[in-house]
Amino acid sequence: MFESLIEKLVVKSRVAHSRRKQLRLLLLDEAFFLLIAPWLMILPARWLLGTADLGGLEGLRIPLGLGCLLLGLSFSLWAVRTQWVLGEGTPSLNAPPTRLVTSGPYRCCRNPIQFGALCYVFGLGALCFSLASALLALLAGTLVGIAYIRLVEERELAIRFGEEYLDYRRRTPFLLPFSCLRRRSFGSAAGDDPTQELPDSLPTRGRVLVHAAAIYDAVQPLVTLGQESRLNRWLAGQVDLPAGARVLDVGCGTGLLTEQLASHQQQAEVIGIDASGPMIARASRCRQTGNCRFQQALGEDLPFADASFDLVTSALFFHHVDRELKLRSLQEIARVLKPGGILLVADMDRPYTRLGWLMSWVAWKLFRQPEIKENMDGLLRELIPAAGFSGLREIGRFSGYIRVLHAWRC
Ligand SMILES: C[S@@+](CC[C@H](N)C(=O)[O-])C[C@H]1O[C@@H](n2cnc3c(N)ncnc32)[C@H](O)[C@@H]1O
Q1: Do 206 and 299 contact (CB within 8 A), yes or no?
Q2: Which are the contacts of 270, defined by CB distance < 8 A and separation ≥ 6?
């Protein structure tokens, strides 16, 4: 769809410019992004919201606005300088860096200029109008920015820098510069043993969340339209188990559901597994209790004995794995469940509201994640019986796109 634009950008990147011409292009670019582009998001947001505000939170408008404005400016300028010095180029599309830049702010995330620009937009919106307008402008800027980066910029960089870029992309988070912070604190928080270092990810084709661990808990209520804690509490209350029962939560992430299960089933032993080291580290640090523990493991290769669990749950995990891994994970779950044991899956499925459909479609396209489309087409309903489960039924719906499926092991 954007092939010809990408081709043009690749051709432009090969044109050599003098440093003086590069500087002119850089100044023009900065003038646009500092003085014009932010208003293209802030003014429509202000117009849409009028004088609506965030109530008492607006008291934070000035300090928060100023902080974000300064943070955004300094982060962007640091990134621009790094491109200029190390990449011998500029953020301008007409004179991009000739070398792939991976150090300085580019070690923290792949898009530090966009991160800085978004902080700047938020800060400016808050200082000039309200936190509400600033948030809406931030949302619009984020959507436009992510769409451009995913659809154009990343593909162009992959053509220009090949394997070098793909490797950098695998190692470095997309937008939020948390990896710098995470690396420093990680060693003290990994898994059962706080001194043990977990690998970022176990080898799998599944989409493992490594860099998102630090912000996952803050973002999850947004992506579930405020339903995250209601969903997990509701799920945990669906089954009452006898004392001594064992529960497994597959793809537990930071342990939001695992924690609810452990507090609802106080007499049960609850184990959460995830392929991501940082997720398990965070879950262990924040949510490990007497009857709740976490372990790094793969859904498609569960390190547990046959027939050793009474209940296996999984929330929002299956849209992270492809068809074959969905089936293998379900077969593994069937293996570790006792006969008659219960499977409870809450995941993306056939959307049942227009907003749910839109959110699923955007996630599928934006993250280029065919695993989501498989769920949207109802694939889990085909695979659950094929993996050895009976009595499949839908017992709940959340957020327009999540359905809860219940079945028992034959
Ligand atoms: C969207 S998160 C869901 C986390 C949690 N269940 C919740 O509801 O908040 C999906 C999780 O699946 C994990 N994951 C992806 N592939 C996996 C695999 N093959 N085995 C185990 N976990 C995997 C990711 O690392 C991520 O933490």
Answers
A1: yes
A2: 246, 247, 248, 249, 258, 261, 262, 291, 292, 293
Helix (H) or strand (E) segment spanning residue 410: none
Residue 18, Cβ density class (10 Å: 0-12 exposed, 13-18 middle, ≥19 buried): exposed
Nearest CA to ligand 1 atom 12: 251
Compute, in angstroms, the gap from residue 256 CA to the centroid of ligand 1.
12
Q: What separation in Å is there between the alpha carbon of 97 and the centre of ligand 1?
A: 36
How far apart are alpha carbons 23 and 244 in whole angstroms? 69
Domains and CATH numbers, the chain: 3-181 (1.20.120), 213-409 (3.40.50.150)
Nearest of 410, 367, 350, 351 to residue 386 by alpha carbon: 410
Handedness of CA 345, 349, 350, 356 (dihedral sign): positive
Beginning with the edge strand found earlier in the chain, give each strand of the sheet holding 292-296 in spatial order: 292-296, 269-274, 246-250, 309-315, 337-348, 402-409, 389-398
Q: Ligand 1 pocket test: which of 235, 301, 320 has the largest number of ligand atoms within 8 Å of its C-beta?
A: 320
Please identify, by atom number, the ligand 1 atom nearest to the C-alpha of residue 249: 6
Q: Quick check: 83 and 111 in contact, CB under 8 A? A: no
Which tokens belong to 366?
């934006």
From first to last of the 410 residues of the chain, give the pLDDT tens digit: 688 899 989 888 888 888 899 999 999 999 999 999 999 999 999 998 888 778 888 888 899 999 999 999 988 998 998 888 888 889 998 899 988 888 778 878 899 999 999 999 999 999 999 999 999 999 999 999 999 999 999 999 999 999 889 888 887 889 888 655 544 333 333 344 443 589 999 999 999 999 899 889 888 888 888 888 899 999 999 999 999 999 999 999 999 999 999 989 989 999 999 999 999 999 998 888 889 999 999 999 999 999 999 999 999 999 999 999 999 999 999 999 999 999 999 999 999 999 999 999 999 988 889 999 999 999 999 999 999 999 999 999 999 999 999 999 99
Report the Cα 335 to chain-centroid distance in Å: 30
In this structure, are residues 68 and 123 in contact, taking their beta carbons and an 8 Å threshold? yes
Residue matched to tokens 């004179």: 95
Give pTM, 2 decimals. Answer: 0.62
